[in-house]
Each structure stands twice: as structure tokens, then as C-alpha cells.
Amino acid sequence: MDRTLDFYQFGFLVLKTVFIFAITLVHVAFTTYAERKIIGRAQARFGPKEVGPHGILQPLADFLKIFGKENIIPQSAYQPVFKIAPIIVFAFTAVNLTVIPFEQGFILADLNVGVLFILASASLAVYGIILAGWSSNSRYSFLGGLRAAAQVLSYEIALTLSLASVVLMAGSLKLSDIVLAQHNSLFGFYAIPQIIGFVVFVVAAFAETNRTPFDLPEAEPELVAGYLTEYSAFRYALFFLGEYTAMYIMASLAALCYLGGWTVPKYVMAILPFLKWIPGWVWFLLKVYLFIFLYIWVRATFPRYRFDQLLSLGWKVLIPLGFVNLFITILFKKLFA
């Protein structure tokens, strides 16, 4: 009887895993469509409009095109590492989906150290980019890999400091506990009392995911395509899947740690009681979409930073602000907890 129960539990876990990864990949595909449409409108263009109604099937056309292309591997590349690097990036990014609580109880692995798990996985994913740059045996790719290493080292410290303040306020590294602690707090979310940390987190999240204005590891005018220069076909696509999945991971982390996750503040619920009928996962997705829109909006608005400006912002502004915010949080907890 116990073996049968374990078998059904395992089967349910597999189905839930497949469902979450499938939904994420669908979101990634249509995020590329939304990004092209939004940026098109920002630049007084239409964006994709030929494939399907209003271009809605463009992601499918792009998928068929890129996976139908010839996979080219440079003769001078170190092939074993060249082939596995995109898999490292995507695997260590996608594994973070297992610890994201989409709603109360809807999570694959509710780890007690969920925040640390995501930070560790994000750190390991960058090794794929570094290895891709080195194994390509190209100057452009190698410089892109070095830039990625320096960028992640600089901004991961700021990201960790901002999340450390949230962990101190919630008293837990467990993401579901952080959401519930926000729901029981005065404001209902941490974005207001942790405004300094929230700003630091947002900027660091852009740099962690190599998004404009911090897309220096790619930087087309200087490095052709950076670490992507020698890649083609499905391996090229894996890097983009990893990048957009990382965007959703960071957006989810922002929603969970600063915007209350799947919950709505109690005072809002008291004023508008009908909101309790809206499922928690809907609120979670709306907050994630808000952050994804911010990613796209910033790309349409800001120019790329110079590399020295990028490092200067990280070490001279964000890291000191992170320490200041952490000190204020510790002082607040000591005096009022």
C-alpha cells in the first residue's frame, strides 16, 4: 500500500514538474513576442504582424526556424565544453523553478533555504557563459565571458545584500514564509519599508540577467554578440531560453520577496472584500508580469552602459547602499522587534 502511495506521489510530482516547465517555456516564447510588440510601439513601429493574427504566431515561426538551422561548431573550438556550456546555463537557471511557490502549497520543493538555493544556482549558471566564451576560441566570445564573470561578481553581492534584509525582516530563508510574513506586516509587502533594498534588487536583477542597460557580455557594437558569437541553431536558442527563464526567476523573486507573492494586503482586502475570490496564483502572475514589463520598458528606454560605468555603479553605489539598508534593518529589528 505504501509503495502504491509513493508511486502515485512520484507520478503527481513528475506531472507537476512537466506542467511548470511547459508553462514557463510558453511564457518565455510569448514574452519575446510581447517584447518585440512593446518596443515596436515605443519606436513608432508595428512589430511582428505577418504570422498569424497580429503576429501572435511569430514565436512558433521563430522556434521552427532556429531549430531547423544547421548546427555549426568552429574547428578551433574545444568541442566538449562548447557543446555542454548552453546546457549548463539553461539547466542551472531552470532548476530554480522547483523552489518558486506560485501559490500556497503549489510548489515542487519548499526548501527551508529557498533564497540561498536561487542565489547559488544563479551563480553556477554564469559558469556556462564563461565556459562558452573560453571554449569558442574567439576573442569576441572570450571577452564576453570575462565581462559576464566580472558583472555577476559585482552585482551578486548587491543582490545578496538586498535579499539579506528581507530575510532578516521575515526571519526565514523559506520563500513561502517570507510571503506570509509580508502578509502579516503593517504594509502587506516589503517594497515600502525596504525601498532602498528594493531599488538595489531591481538594478542588480537587470545586471544578473544580462539585460539592457547591462547587456555588456553581448554588446553587439563592440563584441559582435559576445559569448554567443560562435553559436548557432538549438545551442544558440538554449542561451536565450536561459536568459528569459532567468528573467522570470528574478521577477518571481521580486514578487515573492517585495510584493507579497500570491497575497493581497489585509487593508486592501477589507476595503474590497470581493478580491478574496481571485485565486492567489493570479495575483502572483500579475506581479511577475509587472516586473517583466519593467524589463521590456527599460530596454526600450535606456542606452547601454559602458563597462567601467557598470562596475562603478555596482561597487561604488549599489553595494554601499545594500550595506546601509542592511544596517538600518538590523537596527530596526534590534529596537522594535
UniProtKB/TrEMBL annotation:
InterPro entries: NADH_UbQ_OxRdtase_su1/FPO, NADH_UbQ_OxRdtase_su1_CS
EC numbers: 7.1.1.-
Protein name: NADH-quinone oxidoreductase subunit H
Function: NDH-1 shuttles electrons from NADH, via FMN and iron-sulfur (Fe-S) centers, to quinones in the respiratory chain. The immediate electron acceptor for the enzyme in this species is believed to be ubiquinone. Couples the redox reaction to proton translocation (for every two electrons transferred, four hydrogen ions are translocated across the cytoplasmic membrane), and thus conserves the redox energy in a proton gradient. This subunit may bind ubiquinone.
Keywords tagged on the record: Cell membrane, Membrane, NAD, Quinone, Translocase, Transmembrane, Transmembrane helix, Ubiquinone
Transmembrane segments: 12-33, 81-102, 114-134, 155-175, 187-207, 236-261, 281-298, 310-332
Catalytic activity: a quinone + NADH + 5 H(+)(in) = a quinol + NAD(+) + 4 H(+)(out)
Gene Ontology process terms (BP): aerobic respiration
Membership in a protein family: Belongs to the complex I subunit 1 family.
GO molecular function, a single term: oxidoreductase activity, acting on NAD(P)H, quinone or similar compound as acceptor
Intracellular or extracellular location(s): Cell membrane; Membrane
Enzyme class: translocase
Keyword Translocase: yes
GO CC annotations on file: plasma membrane
Species of origin: Thermodesulfobacterium commune DSM 2178
PROSITE patterns according to UniProt: COMPLEX1_ND1_2 (PS00668)
Membrane topology field: Multi-pass membrane protein
Record note on quaternary structure: NDH-1 is composed of 14 different subunits. Subunits NuoA, H, J, K, L, M, N constitute the membrane sector of the complex.
Keyword RNA-binding: no
Pfam families: NADHdh
